[in-house]
Amino acid sequence: MVTIHDVARAAGVSPATVSRVFNGGNVTPARAHSVQQAAAALGFAPNRVARSLRKQRSSVIGLVIPDIGNPFFTSLARGVEDAAQRTSLSVVLCNSDEDTDKERRYLEVALGEQMAGVIVAAASRDRTDLGPLIERGIPVVAVDRRPHEADVDAVMVDNHHGGEVATRHLLKSGYRRIACITGPEGASTSEERLAGYRAALRTAGHRPESADARAHVRHADFRVEGGRLAMRELLAMPEPPDAVFVANNLMTIGVLEALREAGQEPPDLGVLSFGDIPWASLVRPSLTTVELPSYELGRTAAELLLQRMSGGSSALQTVVLRTTLHARESTAGPRG
Amino acid sequence: MVTIHDVARAAGVSPATVSRVFNGGNVTPARAHSVQQAAAALGFAPNRVARSLRKQRSSVIGLVIPDIGNPFFTSLARGVEDAAQRTSLSVVLCNSDEDTDKERRYLEVALGEQMAGVIVAAASRDRTDLGPLIERGIPVVAVDRRPHEADVDAVMVDNHHGGEVATRHLLKSGYRRIACITGPEGASTSEERLAGYRAALRTAGHRPESADARAHVRHADFRVEGGRLAMRELLAMPEPPDAVFVANNLMTIGVLEALREAGQEPPDLGVLSFGDIPWASLVRPSLTTVELPSYELGRTAAELLLQRMSGGSSALQTVVLRTTLHARESTAGPRG
DNA sequence: CACCCTGCTGAAATCCTTTTCACGACGGGT
DNA sequence: ACCCGTCGTGAAAAGGATTTCAGCAGGGTG
């Protein structure tokens, strides 16, 4: 391997000078030039590991997401990358697969590799431990999901508002027995969307706390299969719902499949998805969605991280982004 | 930061012994135990950067993919992760976005960070330079796309065979003017699939080299938009095709959208997709696809990499995996 | 002319771990 | 009883960069 010493020898200067040339220290132009030449001739590439060891900080930022198969997170990742693009930092993705063990390992890697910063969409609210990173002074930004009592900057979606708008839309379309399939209990996103749903029902004079209404709420796992099973259960009820608010995109796929199985079709049974389904344009009837600002979420998180890295020890920030309702055919109203 | 020295002092041994405890050297059980205790008490976590510097090798493997938004690659990534899971290595993803500059930067990171190994689906055949990695002795495995004259292990799809089977299927279904929308010129996957398509036509007595037949071949960019544009062009021809073989999943989305725009629908105009569309189950008529072994591709690549890392300086291997045709409604045959 | 300040440079320390080397102790074979 | 091999251990070197510190030269000021 060609090191800074080799370059120094070739250019007739000290290693310190070579380092200064590459890191913007004070060096005579002539000398700098000969160092550049020597480096090019030898094909010198700085050893990032040695640099990280000395600087106590590497030049990659880690993005930990819970499901690489979910287009929401890949879009978010794009946002992060595009923002980081303009700096000298590289983004590496870590897929925790909603598994807190895998996530813990990745957070250990981030810590051990002394990453410049970490953006994390937590796999769990209480078992995601950002403490060690924070103690080590590594900037951390939480995105989409807020981990329990961690003092970090955060970029969130206004889930409550989104859930409320969605449910209000279903009510306005004439649906009366509106079910909700939300995510795992304990996940902030699940709970907030559910709370929004209940708030809208309450405002409309329903009583979402009644046993009857509670039976229309299902907790699933944010995956296709979970959505399918939950919908099957709802359809098997003595008085099945006439519409369903599905709290994430993948579960909506499962819901639509379950409906097709059962010979039901929107908008007779209204379906509203919280979060886009990629290429939903091909599905007929077209799907009403609450669109999430996934890309902006990522971009904003990265900007917050960069800002925090460049030193401002200002107060912690939480940015909340709004959703947008796209009304389409799947919620046109019950028969007639 | 608590270092190996702190642990050593606390346990009353030398740093070397602490290192041996964590790396499986010869240490008296009693001593080992007291080191473990001290480490736990102090919350010691080894500094991976220092370790990498000394060992000249880190413990992460890099996976460079050209499009994180393409489910084919995310599924491949899962395969890699699952295989790596059983080792102490962590996988980090790098999204090159089909951009050779971004890709080059990521390869530099892999080199500079002294990654334990790299799996790469090359963004370009000729401008993807794996040389420096190989020279440094970092094991590299090419997956899905073979970079030009690089001496690396590889895991590929039998694209030629897949293209041939696909086209033969269209012919058997009664289509006669079969177009092909393939990827960028120069990409191995594009060319091989196209060659398979042509081989099938030739066998059936067509003359794919004729000007007429050549006009039915379009090169696009493997993205939704490219597929849409190519299909629009094909539909605008004086004698438009009665079926189309689309060489990747995302372009098929665009093709279906273009058809819908033009008021056409499969199977009157047959559509066959090379590669799955996630949740295609929701699309009617259901889509005939050539299914790619994406997950297995990733898993096999990781296994090859691990094998290479564990020292066997055996001959280079290229593993080729076959595709599977799933005939569905979209190629049921032209009207009637 | 004396002094100080600035700008450039190189030697050496530093970051933290792994690994080599040397050494002492101990057990077994002759 | 002697020697050899093995095992466990610690001191110290190595890995490659950054950064501090001190020194030196040159220009500007009083």
Low-pLDDT segments of chain A: none
Residues in helices of chain A, as a percent range: 40-55%
CATH topology of the largest domain in chain A: Rossmann fold
CATH architecture of the largest domain in chain A: 3-Layer(aba) Sandwich
Keywords (chains A, B): DNA-binding, Repressor, Transcription, Transcription regulation
Protein name (chains A, B): LacI family transcriptional regulator
GO molecular function (chains A, B): DNA-binding transcription factor activity; transcription cis-regulatory region binding
Domain HTH lacI-type (chains A, B): 2-55
Based on the model shown, name its key terms.
434 Repressor (Amino-terminal Domain), alpha/beta, Rossmann fold, 3 domains, six-stranded mixed beta sheet, six-stranded parallel beta sheet, DNA-binding, 336 residues, 12 strands, 16% strand, homodimer
Structure description:
The structure is a homodimer of 336-residue chains. Chain A has 336 residues and is an alpha/beta fold. Chain A folds into 3 domains: 1-46, lambda repressor-like DNA-binding domains (434 Repressor (Amino-terminal Domain)), CATH 1.10.260; 55-157 and 294-321, Response regulator (Rossmann fold); 159-292 and 324-331, 3-Layer(aba) Sandwich (Rossmann fold). Helix content of chain A is 44%, strand content 16%. The first copy, chain A, is elongated and about 85 Å long. Chain A binds a DNA duplex (30 and 30 nucleotides) through residues 1, 3-5, 13-20, 23, 25-28, 31, 46-56. Chains A, B: It comes from Streptomyces sulfonofaciens. Chains A, B: Pfam families: LacI, Peripla_BP_1.
